């Protein structure tokens, strides 16, 4: 099939959200109702076994025979679109460009569409949801009741920020560690406004490792466009740990080689309350 942005969005919504209709295409693409209806009909003509119309939902739902033609199976594609819905998608097999370039591709983390649909519904409708979750400290699946509010990209993987009834606080859940199909419950009692770490802004101050030579420090200061020899990065308090990890900053010890450490944290005391233990 030839790549088509409208077909891509139809397939993306049907696969990850479990439904698509003219209203969603009007909202996301700014199309007329007539054009949206024509696009859904055209997509169904090209992929006749993918969608079925459900009168009760007033939407097209994916069938059990659904096959992907325009999207990948990587949930990051959908989540990236959620963050930047106006960004134009790229076809799965893009033609080679004259100007050579290469982007590092990280291995996708498996997330089932049935799982994702429940989490998206709970997040958008602000519902409590019962889920099965595994972790490295508890690799056996256990039931959790959470109230999610935001999908978060930490650089290396996607998390779901949610209130956890078991721990009695807001936590980050690795998206690929959910299991089964979520069970939607009633309205959440802990809104995003109660998430202190989410609503608190923290400024991290970095500088070149002082053990480096003046010339080496100047290289790093130019790399990061530092002002006065310092780099100030403001982020949500709950993102501090992920940001430091991405910047390869160890808050507990210095690397033996300053060339490996490169940057050091200046204001450790300011961010200590927000660091993982």
Explain this structure.
By secondary structure, this protein is of the alpha+beta class. The chain has three domains: 5-71, Arc Repressor Mutant, subunit A; 113-195, SH3 type barrels, CATH 2.30.30; 200-274, no CATH class. The protein has helices spanning 5-17, 22-29, 33-46, 75-83, 113-125, 196-199, 214-223, 240-246, 258-261, 268-271; strands spanning 51-54, 59-62, 127-133, 142-153, 158-164, 169-174, 178-187, 201-208, 231-236, 263-265. The strands form three sheets. A five-stranded antiparallel sheet has the order 6-5-4-3-7, covered by helices on one side. It is globular.
Name a few traits of the molecule.
277 residues; Arc Repressor Mutant, subunit A; 3 domains; globular; 10 helices; 3-stranded antiparallel sheet; SH3 type barrels; 5-stranded antiparallel sheet
